[in-house]
Every structure is written in C-alpha cells, then in structure tokens.
Amino acid sequence: MKKSKFKQFQKTILLVAFLATGIFTAPAQEALTLAKALSIAETGSPDLQQSLLNLERYQKSLEAQRAALKSRFSLEVNPANYSKQRRFDNRFSEWYTNENFESNTLFTISQPILPTDGTISLTNEFGWSSSKSTLAADKSESKVFFNNLYLNLNQPLFTYNRLKLELKQLELNLENANISYAIQRLNLEKNVTQYFYNVYMAQMNLSIAKEELANTQKSYDIIVNKVNAGLAAKEEQYQAELNLSTAKSTVQNNEVNFENAKDQLKLYLGMDLYQDIMILADISANPVKVDLDLAIQNGLDSRMELRQREIDVENSQFNLIETKALNEFKGEMNLRFGITGDNKDFGNIYENPTKSPSVGVSFNIPIFDWGEKKARIAAAEASIRSQELNLSEEKKQIIVDIRQVYRNLQNQLTQIDIAKQNERNAQLTYEINLERYENGDLTGMDLNLYQTQLSEKKISYSQALINYKIELLNLKIQSLFDFERGEKILPNELYLTQDKK
C-alpha cells in the first residue's frame, strides 16, 4: 500500500516538473504595434534587402569606374624566353641557325584623360638578351643589357567622349537605384500597414466570432431549459443546436484566417515564423484637413518617379549618341617619344642612346552602309520621344491618383459615420430581439439573423476606420506631404545614408 502511494507521488512530481518545463520553455508572445512592425521591416524585409543589394551593385560599379580613371600601375615579368630556329637570310641567300635567350620586365603607368577620352602612358622595358647565330662556318654572339623608355599618347579624334558618357550613365544608374530604394521604403510603409491591419481585422473577426459563440451558447441554454420545461417546441432546440454548431465552425475558420494573416505579416517583416505575435492597434480615425491643390503641387514638385522618367530620357539621349557613332567618320592619333639603349655592361646602357619618336594618325571613313545608321538613329529618336511621352503621362497620372485618393478620403469619412450608426442600431436591435427571444416571442433562427447582422456591422465599422487610415497614408505617399503633421516629406531623407546602413 505504501509502495503504491509512493509511486503515485512520483508520478505527480514528474507531471508538475513537465508542466513547469513547458511553461518556461514556451516561446513568449510578442506584442506588435504598427510602429514596431515598421521598425522591424526596416532591417528584416526581404523586399527592402533586395533593393539595398541593387543599390550596392550600382554604388560599387560607380566606385570601380572612378577608380579606373586614376593612374594604373602594372608590371609584366618574363623570367625566361628561349628559342632556337633555323632561318633563311634573304640578303645572302643562305640558311643560318639562331639561338636566343631573353629575360625582361615591362613596367607601365597608364593614365586615362577624362576631358579628352585619351590615354597617356609611360613605359619602361628592361632586360637581358643572349643571341647566337651560326652562318656556315661563321659564328656570332651578342650578350647585352637593354632598356627602352618611352612616353605614349593615344587620342581618339572626331568622336564622342566614351569615358564621360560611361561615367554619367553609371551616375544616373546609381541615382535611379537610390530613388528606387526611397520609393521602396515608402511602399514598405504602405504594405506593412496593410498586412498589419489585415492581421488586426482577422484578430477582430475572431474576437467577434467568439463573442457571437458566447451569445449563441447562452441562447442555446435558454431554449434547452424552455424545452425541458415544456415551454418551447422541440424544433426550437434543433435550430439552436444548428446555430451553435455554425458559431463554433465560424470561430474555427476565423482562427485559421488569423494564423494565416500572422504568417503573412511575419514573412513580409522578415520575422521568425515561429515567433507568436499579438496585434495592438489604435484604429480611431480623426478627420484630417486636406488641401487638394497643395497635395497636387507638392506631388508634382517632389515625386521621385518624375526624376526616374527624366533619367530614362537622358539614357535614351545617350543611346542616341552611341547610335550615331555607328559607322562614323573618326580618327585616332598616336604620339610616342622614347629613348633606347643597350650595352653588354649594365652601367653603360645609355652610353650611346637612340631616340625613337613616332607619330601616327589614322582615319576610319565609312562609305556606304545601306541605310543602317539612318534607321538606327530614327529608332533611337523614337525611343527618346517615347520616354518624353512617359514623363508627360507620369505627371498626369500623379494628378489623377492624388485626386482619387482625396475623393476616397472624403467618402471614407461619410462611410465611417454610416458604419458607426449602423453598428449602434444593430446593437440596439439585437438587445431588443434577445429580450423577445427570452420571452418566447422570437424564434432561434430569427435571433441568429440579428446576431449575424450585429457582427457584420461591427466589422464594417472597424474596416471603415482602417480604410480611412490607409487612404490617408496613401495620400502621404502620393503627394509626399504628411497632412497629419502638416509637413513635407523630403525625398533625400528617404535615400540611403551611412547612418542607415
């Protein structure tokens, strides 16, 4: 008997320990506000990270191009080069054998010239050479140190500056990427807000469904007591059971929707998917005074998409310049001045130096291309006109979008008043009919309709409040003006800086 009690005591201790361990190891639920969600998204959002990577790519490309404009130092080393060949001497019409061994280094300093697209370079070649030649019975041998120092200038003529054009294109690409990042940050705020309120609505739907289930359970208990007392027909109990099952099913469906909405929010924020969250939101919406003319003007002055369209126009113009260079008349000038010396003694290399100047000018003269260049230029000009049209249409679209958001805001204020009144009326109607149901003057099916109506009106009121807040945020994004605070949103504040990395 004592042994049995001891085993029971052991089981109890183990159960308590297991429950305690479960309590302390269970992940804590994190309360999430909209401000906190936005803060998490700033560092965790995959969309923003992708935009940052794209920005980094263009930043490094521009850095590389600027580095390429500085002096470049290179050293080429050839430790050994040996050859032995049988050759024919045209001067004496005889065959001879030549054996050659050479070792040399080539040091070059090259400097691109940005204003002219030319290149100036200083080259020094130093080496040692051993050469043996055998002609019939005669043998000759030469062993010398040699050094060749020369300055070279290569300058394109009658063509566009490719260095400047490429640098400008990279600068525009970086600016465009920075703008895209800034736009992504604005869209991030909008998307996070939308996902956040989706979770809030799912959470609210679940809460209302549970409240509806509690009311339905209460109604069911009332009708069961009446049926047991013989005060109501049996079919009333069947209807009450059906209503109760439906309410339980609705709760379960809303629980699933709530969990799905939380997963979508955590995925967009870049949060741990196994972290449980709870939404804390203030959906009260105070009417904000909006100046439509100010919104439109500030949008046209500040919207970054307009600068993107301007960049598209500039890139199209660069493309036209490159197209005109196809089959173009162009030239190239090459100037070289050097001094060469050789001697078997290292210290006497320049004892008898030889100057080696050279000048070369060449031209490329196209004659006939069957209209290729003309057609390509026409295509490039059409592309410019297309981009200019896109710029004009973008301005019109900004005006239309801001007008639509403004009208939606005014309409949402009306919808909030209507939804608020409808919720109040639905609550009063339900309370009146609940009393009628308790008195036996109303069927369970009729009461369920009033319960459903009340739930719908509560959800509609909350949705109307959220819609107003989202439209107000949309107006801020469209106009780059925060009417709640009464201040402009400066685009450069949205760009990436060292503090935001």
Automatic annotation (TrEMBL):
<dbReference type="InterPro" id="IPR003423">
    <property type="entry name" value="OMP_efflux"/>
</dbReference>
<keyword id="KW-0472">Membrane</keyword>
<dbReference type="Pfam" id="PF02321">
    <property type="entry name" value="OEP"/>
</dbReference>
<dbReference type="GO" id="GO:0009279">
    <property type="term" value="C:cell outer membrane"/>
</dbReference>
<feature type="coiled-coil region">
    <location>
        <begin position="377"/>
        <end position="426"/>
    </location>
</feature>
<keyword id="KW-0998">Cell outer membrane</keyword>
<protein>
    <submittedName>
        <fullName>TolC family protein</fullName>
    </submittedName>
</protein>
<dbReference type="InterPro" id="IPR051906">
    <property type="entry name" value="TolC-like"/>
</dbReference>
<feature type="coiled-coil region">
    <location>
        <begin position="160"/>
        <end position="187"/>
    </location>
</feature>
<keyword id="KW-1134">Transmembrane beta strand</keyword>
<keyword id="KW-0175">Coiled coil</keyword>
<keyword id="KW-0732">Signal</keyword>
<comment type="similarity">
    <text>Belongs to the outer membrane factor (OMF) (TC 1.B.17) family.</text>
</comment>
<dbReference type="GO" id="GO:0015562">
    <property type="term" value="F:efflux transmembrane transporter activity"/>
</dbReference>
<keyword id="KW-0813">Transport</keyword>
<dbReference type="GO" id="GO:1990281">
    <property type="term" value="C:efflux pump complex"/>
</dbReference>
<keyword id="KW-0812">Transmembrane</keyword>
<feature type="signal peptide">
    <location>
        <begin position="1"/>
        <end position="28"/>
    </location>
</feature>
<dbReference type="GO" id="GO:0015288">
    <property type="term" value="F:porin activity"/>
</dbReference>
